[in-house]
Write a structure and sequence with these properties.
By secondary structure, the chain is an alpha/beta fold. The chain contains 13 helices and ten strands. α1 crosses α13 and α6 packs across α8.
Length: 331
């Protein structure tokens, strides 16, 4: 069999080290299983001209032969793959991992990433789709979603890295304060949909009852530091307007750290019954109540056990992807 070409516009770079980290981890997990994979990364953040460059490289690679499938990780890259396949006069099957949580955005703007008609165009023409959350296809295609050959496969996490551990030791490693509860907002404050504004307002309310509570925000925490950052905190805040299957929730639970989250993506369905998971309304008052409840949650509370039970580690999700490759005859 030939190579599986991974075509993605999401992949870590020096300037955006977290961007598409889940794609890289999946790619490396498949390679570790002996799957012949090749990476075609479109750095669209650097220049939109890179889409044209990868189109030509991909078309040439398909024309050369020895390709058993294309695995795309975004609507835009699926469209590039479709065009390249047509240009090369190839019949290579196209798989799309559908990560795009903006399909649940309650207030979409006119940016192309929010165009559902474009997503629908790509999804209808892919040979196999792997949404990370079960409602995503219906959010784009409605009843037509039933006609799409698909399997829900959330992004897995590395359970060897994200483990429970000593909070005091982790705080020392992170050079964070020793005293008082730490609330971790694991995103850069400048991302509006992540709602740092609500988190900051909730923090002020929490401090009225817990004066030493500190809020630490992401953006400068290196990926290799994130396991320690989670172990060092007392609660993780995910107050997004929308998500699909947020990886940070799984990572926090694998470390047995409580999560305070809005009702987004698959958080409630998969984890909402856990004592360490508090589903809140997107208001400062509701978030603050959830934080105070989370600080009193027992530890451990079964977060890691749930991740293992649902098979959300990178090893088992990679195995499921391999099975999908087999289903379409790619390996």
């Amino acid at each position: 069999m030939g190579s599986v070409l991974h075509v993605t516009n999401m992949y870590p770079t020096a300037s955006a080290p977290y961007y598409g980290i889940f794609v890289r981890e999946q790619f490396e997990a498949l390679r570790a299983r002996g799957i012949d994979v090749e990476l075609f990364f479109i750095d669209g953040l650097a220049s939109k001209l890179n889409y044209s460059k990868i189109f030509h490289e991909l078309a040439f690679r398909l024309h050369k032969g020895g390709v058993s499938a294309i695995h795309s990780h975004h609507t835009f890259t699926t469209i590039i793959a479709l065009l390249a396949r047509k240009f090369a006069r190839a019949e290579t099957p196209i798989i799309e991992s559908f990560h795009e949580g903006e399909v649940f955005n309650p207030r979409p703007n006119l940016a192309p990433r929010n165009w559902k008609w474009l997503k629908a165009f790509a999804l209808r023409r892919a040979d196999f789709v792997m949404p990370v959350e079960k409602r995503m296809l219906a959010a784009v295609l409605g009843d037509e979603a039933r006609q799409i050959v698909s399997e829900v496969i959330p992004a897995g996490i590395d359970l060897k890295q994200f483990t429970p551990g000593d909070a005091d030791e982790a705080r020392e490693d992170m050079e964070w304060p020793e005293e008082g509860p730490i609330l971790l907002f694991p995103f850069a404050p400048g991302k509006p949909a992540k709602r740092h504004d609500l988190v900051a307002a909730a923090h002020e309310i929490v401090r009225r009852k817990c004066h030493k509570a500190r809020l630490i925000v992401g953006g400068t925490i290196r990926h290799e530091q994130m396991p320690d950052a989670l172990r060092a905190c007392d609660a993780v805040l995910l107050i997004s307007d929308y998500e699909a299957s947020p990886t940070i929730v799984k990572e926090a639970l694998a470390c047995e750290r409580p999560v305070v989250a809005t009702d987004v993506g698959d958080v409630r369905e998969m984890f909402g019954d856990l004592a360490g998971v508090k589903i809140v309304e997107p208001t400062p008052e509701s978030i603050a109540r959830g934080v105070l409840e989370a600080l009193d949650a027992p530890k451990p509370f079964g977060g890691r056990e749930r991740i293992e039970k649902l098979g959300l580690d990178i090893e088992r999700t990679a195995d499921r992807i391999v099975e999908c490759y087999k289903r379409i005859g790619a390996i």
